Amino acid sequence: MENSHAIELKGITKRFGKVVANDAVDLYLDRGVIMSLLGENGSGKTTLMNMLSGIYFPDEGQIFVDGKPVTIASPKDAFANGIGMIHQHFKLVDVFTAAENVALGLSDGSYDLKRVEDGIRGISDKYGFGIDPKKKIYSMSVSEKQTVEIIKVLYRGANVLILDEPTAVLTPQEIKRLFRILRAMRDDGKAIILITHKLNEVMEISDVVAVMRKGRHIRTVRTAETTPQALTEMMVGKAVSLNITRFDPVDPKPRLTVAGLTCRDSEGVKKLDNVGFIAYGGEILGIAGIAGSGQKELLETVAGLRRAEKGSIIYSPEGKPPEELVGKTPMQIRDAGVALAFVPEDRLGMGLVGAMGMTDNMMLRSWNKGRGVFVDRKTPEKLANQVLDFLEVVTPGIDYPVRKLSGGNVQKVLVGREIASSPSVLMSAYAVRGLDINTSYIIYNLMSGQKARGVAVIFVGEDLDVLLELCDRILVLCGGKVSGIVDARTATKEQIGLLMTKVGGKEEA
Amino acid sequence: MHEKAPLIRIAKRDDLPKYKVWLIRLAALLLAIAIGGLLFLIVRTNPITAYGEMLKGSLGKKTGIRQIVKTAIPLLGTALALAPCFKMRYWNIGAEGQITMGAMGAGYFALFWYDKLPSPVLLVVMGLAGIVCGGLWAAIPAVFKARWGTNETLFTLMMNYIAIGIVAWLQGGPWEGKPGSQIIPTFNKAAVLPKALGVNCGWIIVLLLTVFMFVYMRYTKHGYEVAVLGGSENTARYAGMNVARVTVRTAVLSGAISGLVGFMVASGTHMTLYSSVAGGVGFTAITVCWLAQLNPFAMVAIAAMLAVLSRGASTLQTSLKVPASISDMITGIILLCMLGCEFFINYRLIFRGHHERAGEPQRAGGAEGPDKKETEEGR
Q1: Of chain A residues 416-455, which have a CB less than 8 A from chain B?
Q2: Which residue of A has its CA nearest to B237?
Q3: How far from the centroid of its chain's Cα atoms is residue B162's Cα?
């Protein structure tokens, strides 16, 4: 039926306990169209798509494919209906070749590698993928791995492709390439859904934008007829100002002088290679790089959590003689005024204990203070209440396990605690990971506030647009080396993107 | 093919109110008792008579109560010893060996120093010897874990057999009483724990330990370190804790308390030393510890309950000729139900065709994930 939609959702509702993840969502998508599914974290985008790809099963509502009602109870059903999803985290076997990965789990039971290889070449030529089916996954770049995922889905005959935040792991150049591929597939009559929250990408690639908010489908608009500002307002539900206050650094003095820093991980792989830079008090130094380029290792080494093989970190606090941080314990470094707020992927793994309440988590900084065998719970309790009020943390109580709080609130607890220690160096990594727009801007402005206090802020971020807006200078890491330090006021995204892949072109998985 | 929702789906629950949680637990206990009743029916005994006998035999008589206390002392003591380890997510299942080694240390002084020291001093020395031996025994796997990352579960388990082997060797060799008897002689009276209210005074010691452990886990820096390390090792390092030191220290504390329990069972219960002096307490205590969800005061109740069960079972054996192993089975069933019910506290099941909200047409029901598994009791 030519005039029916490729995919249509009617009244889809999905609940998790009391939480309504999707509330009576109606949505449709035609062939030959790229749709962006836009929404903040927790707005239900991924849940909705998981129902299309057979990971979840809707509580209510009906899915139609090409106008026919279908039941998608498993990923197999999804494939049978021509729906394929490319997840954010690749599901590939590293020691297999591209062809072997594609052949894995093909349901016809045959294992004809030759045929699969030919099939891959066919698809690859058609859309310009340039993938060698015999190449092993572990020797591929992130972008190539993603391509294999796309091929995997196409090989199974998918007409509807869902990509979950496909650009998160790519450099600007790789994103351009991905978009070319997506356009080629669209022109071939595929229907494509992009899950994303990056507005500029939405504007660039998509034909239509469906905006989700709090589990509801707010509206679908043509990209050509809207603006980023309008989309944001639809996403957030009210007008927001997307401005980050950035003023010129006042009287910047070297606070942290890092030179020749080198470290290896437990397998002996070099994670930092001769890293050197100066962080000034009263400025924000951004750190950019492809995921896994040494950002985490750099911060951990400065914080004393990782042993430096070579190099020095000279810390010059206000009014005190400079001291060497290499060789000091994490506790000594923190007491000297170097704070680290690291938000790992699971948000809790480092810096917070999920089963504990705010008070006990505040205590992570102060538990060892004071003499005697007993801990002092009064001071952290006071601190917990301060953070609660100041950052408007939503929690049933300061003793409620932080694991059960929403991601944004967890991060407020973490960042709030580190800022409350009045550090003179504040390192933060992925501080806005998964946060909604409003909270993100609260955090950005907190960072600026720290800068105004004369703190040397080191900010590891994922979003280049934000780094360019928030920071004074940006250090770019590539494969554990510093590939450049640029002025954030004049640099362009393309320039940083080139630096991200510069040194030896070594890319990290 | 329009509606083919899975038969049973699992969905996460929100926080249940406290009373509902306890209702579920109570229901689990009742279910366990009912299944136990079925067991009695299988061995052709009236369950009501059987349960009645158990209660009468255990709580009905003074001697019964004394027996219960005597059984509960080492259970409670060892459960308390295990609590900090489990809180730290350090799976010490070597309490059996730590008790045995503690008993051996105490036994050495009981056998060879009883005439050289006045009784109170002797008992204190025996207790200290138990603490040191148990602590050292627990230190070995902990040091290996802290330095080389060995698996503590297997290591502590294996250490049990070595400890039991050592005592078995002493029993048939150097410490043997009458040659050829394979038995270590009964301790001199000076080396036996005095009684308080008719039972060896170990009960006073374990009650003091209960309070100590509660305070230790909740209000001390050590206890906080243990909790953080149990929550996340990365966070513990981030907070500046010395992970290796905390691991070893906690394991040693745990072994030391188990060793003290060893002293109490050797001196107070058996009045001698033999290879199975721990008698499985080290393993049963794991049950006590988990059923109490690491809460020291709850452990008192759980230890008492298990002691009642085992005492009741032995009366059953004499009065109704029901095998005593049935109490082990009932204990197992209770454990299964209690731990299994935690699943129902966290999740709920939705059956196909079940309507969650009235007044709406057609419901397909949804799978909570790709793993739509049929749930059975006990997960």
Answers
A1: none
A2: A305
A3: 21
DSSP SS3 for B235: helix
Mean pLDDT of chain B: 85
* Coil, strand or helix at B264: helix
Top-tier CATH class for A250-337+470-509: alpha beta
Nearest Cα to Cα of residue A443 among A464, A461, A423: A461
Q: Say yes or no: A373 contacts chain B, CB-CB below 8 A.
A: yes
Cα–Cα distance, B285 to B289 (Å, whole number): 6
Integer Cα distance of A71 and A50 in angstroms: 13
Q: DSSP 3-state assignment of B194?
A: coil
Among A221, A310, A191, A211, smallest CA distance to A259 is for: A310
Share of chain B above pLDDT 90, in %: 48
Q: Where are the domains of chain B?
A: 67-300
Closest to B283 (Cα-Cα) out of B87, B95, B83, B1: B95
Higher pLDDT: B342 or B277? It is: B277
> Closest-CA residue in chain A for B6?
A73
Cα distance from A355 to chain B (closest Cα, Å)? 7
CB contact under 8 A, B227 and A353: yes
Nearest to A133 by CA among A178, A166, A101: A101
- pLDDT for the residue B374: 35
Q: How many CB atoms lie within 10 A of CB B55?
A: 14
**In which region does residue A166 sit, left (phi positive, over 0), alpha (psi from -120 to 50) or beta (all else)?**
alpha
* Alpha carbon distances (Å) from A207 to A229, A341, A407, A477: 17, 39, 31, 34
Going by their DSSP bridges, the two strands A7-16 and A60-65 should be labelled as: antiparallel
Chain B CB contacts of A51 under 8 Å are 366
**From the CB of residue A275, how many other CB atoms can be counted at a distance below 10 Å?**
25
pTM for this model (two decimals) = 0.75
B155-197: per-residue pLDDT in tens? 999 999 999 999 999 998 889 888 888 889 899 888 898 888 8
Q: Do A55 and B365 touch (CB under 8 A)?
A: no
Which of A75, A330, A360 is facing B237, going by the closest CB pair? Answer: A330
Of A56, A60, A348, the CB nearest to B363: A60
Encode pLDDT of B99-145 as tens digits: 999 999 999 999 999 888 899 999 999 999 999 999 999 999 999 99
State the nearest Cα–Cα gap between A192 and chain B, in angstroms: 23
Which of residues 346 through 365 in chain A touch B, CB cutoff 8 A? 348-356, 360, 363-365
CATH 3.40.50.300 domain span(s) along chain A: 7-236, 250-337+470-509
In chain A, residues with a C-beta closer than 8 Å to the C-beta of B1 are 71
**CATH number of the domain at A7-236, please?**
3.40.50.300
- Residues A388-413: what's their mean pLDDT? 82
Contacts of B220 in chain A (CB under 8 A): 373-375
Residue B16: its chain A contacts at CB < 8 A? none
Backbone angles phi, psi at A132, to 5 degrees: -90, 115
Among residues 165-224 of chain B, which lie with CB inside 8 Å of chain A?
219-224
From chain A residues 32-91, the ones with a CB under 8 A of any chain B CB are: 51, 54-62, 69, 71, 73-75
Among B1, B219, B224, the residue to mutate for chain A (most A Cβ within 10 A) = B224
Q: Least CA distance to B217: which residue of chain A?
A: A374
Q: Are B260 and B98 in contact (CB under 8 A)?
A: no
- Gap between the Cα atoms of A261 and A87, Å rounded: 35
Two structure tokens written together for A373:
């065998």
